[in-house]
Specification:
Length: about 525
């Protein structure tokens, strides 16, 4: 019966849906950003090898279309020094996302690092069209214009950056422009505004203190340097400046104590060893002075101030051939400083080469229009060579310079220089009454590197402290220095370079010149 029932059942027709073919599952496309979090995590942890491995995997999966992976890869290449490779990758990011200003900023940054400042400016201008309120674009445009020496445009861009958003770095670059233009007053105003905005920034405080120090406003200088040391007792730049001030006033032991602290922070600083050497020179420890200066010269072989000091010390030790060597090297690096030619002439005179000594003196007279010691020494040499007419001309030029200096400032003159000039005047039969008055001075200050006002400071009289603050140098302080001062460097903050004023004088009855006063070229970093 059961079999019959099964046989008599009528089969139902199959459903229409079951007869349709099954649709294939949609293809899954890779998510381009699915590992961006991991790339970011490795990058901020500075685990660059793991980061590059994840980037490589991500780019393979996305066929090189993951913008963030390419961007981070370019950042890593830049950190590793592969600037050209980073530029190419940033350009790829800019192609993938042409409306992104950050990609263009990174392209411009790489061009800047490659030294292509004009191309960087063009890219920054394109980025500015996409984001007109980005202070960083204005700031970087100003920096590019500084390197192109277009200071007016640089100031405009930096002021725009400050209008959008105030930052310490923008103030520093704006102050650097004024230093490059030689306008210390405007530079001080900028740094004062910067200190008001960021009163705990030790770099700004130190720079402002050094600028006041250069202008001879010592109270404010010490105030700002002291504030810098209050916030950061280990600020070696402020300590070095304070030690330089003490050295300027002849406190060599205290200055050496300060320099000992700086040596722990920057043991390979050329200005530090230069100043230590000149402290020993002031203490008349000439061998130690030469050792320190040789170390400074090893660390900075193209610093003319160190070579100048080495020549000065060797002249003092009567090692005239060595003095000639270092002074010649300094002249090659600083060919427009008259005092270098004068000291070279002193060395040549002692090496019994009067003809070349005359040439050196003639060049010194041509370059130095203020220092009467150049004319005095030249007159002595000409007198000893029997050229009375030339000696008389140089003597009269010396008196003219002294008269101008007495009219422009209340300078005192070194007693030895006055005595020597009087003897030369008597020998030339022009009388012994000179245009100056003979001061009473302590002869113990003869070899001080930073003694008070003496005849050596005629290049730029500074009253009672002619060796103070004659020059500035730094990364942050590009500016045109006065004659006889060191050149600035592009990558350091401004720093004090107290001006040395070495001089030489000679007795008319002797064939050789003697070093009257030796002052160092101090170069706090």
């Amino acid at each position: 019966m059961a079999e019959e029932r099964l046989a008599t059942r009528t089969p139902f027709p199959a459903s229409v849906e079951s007869q349709k073919p099954r649709l294939k599952k949609a293809q899954e496309f890779p998510i381009l950003e699915k590992q961006n979090w991991l790339i970011h995590l490795h990058y901020i942890r500075k685990d660059y090898e793991a980061c590059k491995a994840v980037i490589k995997e991500q780019l393979q999966e996305t066929q090189g279309l993951c913008e963030y992976a390419i961007y981070v890869q370019a950042l890593i290449f830049r950190l590793e020094g592969n600037i050209q490779e980073s530029l190419e990758l940033f350009q790829t990011c800019a192609i993938l996302s042409p409306q992104c200003a950050d990609n263009l900023k990174q392209v411009a940054r790489s061009l800047f690092l490659l030294g292509k400042h004009k191309a960087a400016i063009e890219v920054y201008n394109e980025a500015a069209k996409l984001n007109q309120k980005d202070w960083e674009i204005c700031h970087n445009l100003g920096v590019c214009y500084i390197y192109l020496k277009q200071f007016t445009k640089a100031q405009d861009q930096l002021h725009n950056a400050l209008h959008l958003n105030r930052h310490d770095l923008t103030y520093i670059m704006l102050g650097k422009i004024h230093l490059l233009e030689g306008d210390l007053d405007k530079a001080i105003e900028i740094y004062k505004k910067a200190v008001e905005f960021s009163p705990e920034n030790t770099e700004l405080l130190t720079t402002l203190g050094l600028l006041y120090l250069q202008l001879g406003i010592y109270q404010k200088a010490f105030e700002h340097l002291g504030n810098a040391l209050t916030y950061d007792p280990t600020n070696y730049k402020a300590i070095l400046a304070a030690g330089s001030m003490m050295q300027t006033h002849g406190d060599f032991d205290v200055a050496l104590t300060k320099y000992r602290v700086v040596a722990c922070a920057v043991p390979e600083s050329p200005p530090l060893w230069n100043n230590i050497g000149m402290c020993f020179f002031g203490k008349k420890k000439y061998v130690a002075a030469i050792s320190c200066l040789k170390r400074a010269n090893y660390l900075a072989p193209f610093d003319w101030k160190i070579l100048y000091n080495l020549g000065l010390v060797h002249l003092t030790m009567q090692q005239y051939a060595s003095a000639f060597h270092f002074l010649s090297a300094a002249i090659n690096l600083q060919p427009k400083m008259g005092e270098l030619y004068m000291l070279l002439a002193v060395a040549l005179t002692n090496l019994e080469d009067p003809e070349n000594a005359k040439r050196a003196y003639a060049e010194a007279v041509r370059l130095d229009k203020c220092n009467p010691l150049v004319n005095l020494n030249y007159a002595v040499l000409l007198y000893n060579q029997g050229e009375r007419k030339g000696a008389l001309a140089q003597y009269q030029e010396m008196e003219r310079k002294v008269s101008l200096l007495k009219d422009s400032s209340s300078l005192e003159f070194d007693s030895e220089m006055v005595e020597m000039a009087q003897k030369l005047g008597a020998a030339l039969q022009v009388g012994e009454a000179l245009v100056w008055t003979k001061p009473v001075k302590d002869t113990k200050s003869k070899h001080r590197t930073t003694s008070t006002s003496k005849a050596a400071g005629f290049q730029q009289p500074l009253g009672s402290n002619q060796a103070l603050g004659q020059a500035m140098s730094s990364a942050a302080a590009h500016r045109k220095l006065p004659s006889g001062a060191g050149t600035s460097q592009l990558t350091k903050p401004p720093s004090l370079l107290p001006e040395p004023e070495p001089t030489a004088e000679a007795h008319p009855a002797e064939a050789s010149a003697q070093i009257r006063e030796n002052r160092s070229r101090m170069t706090p970093e």
